[in-house]
Amino acid sequence: MDARLDLFADPIAGKILKHFLAIGKAMQESPLPAATQELVALRVSQINGCAVCIDMHTKEATAAGETPVRLHLVAAWREATVFTEAERAALELAEQGTRIADGAGGVSDEAWANAAEHFDGEQLTALVMTISVMNTMNRLNVITQQPAGNYEAGQFPH
């Protein structure tokens, strides 16, 4: 499969993508646990059907020591017993923040309060930014049909 646009060759895309790479670096330096960032990025990407982001975040999480069991169970996190309460709160916020159009009321006060119980202000900000940026990147990649499967861990800041 060929991408509809070569985002790395296009000068306009290049100008914009450098800012997204800077966002990725800032996210890596945030106080939100790296495991939570990767689980959230993976779940948002699963919901949006973004193969290139699923590829990237699965490989990044694996390189960071995430277990195959947890990665395989992200899609069914509600029934899985391998996630902490904080991770479950983050995944719930990620799902509601991604499925805004499907969830008549957007993000519920309950999901927000639950996340706020587990994360301090800086971590909660980083969580919201992770969810938002992943939704943006997913849409960019899905619209332009970016191919998946060749990502190597560490290739880009995420």
Automatic annotation (TrEMBL):
Domain (Carboxymuconolactone decarboxylase-like): residue spans on this chain: 20-95
InterPro entries per UniProt: AhpD-like (IPR029032), AhpD_core (IPR004675), CMD-like (IPR003779)
Coiled coil (UniProt feature): none
Highest taxon, organism lineage: Bacteria
SUPFAM superfamilies in the record: AhpD-like
Name by which UniProt lists this protein: Carboxymuconolactone decarboxylase family protein
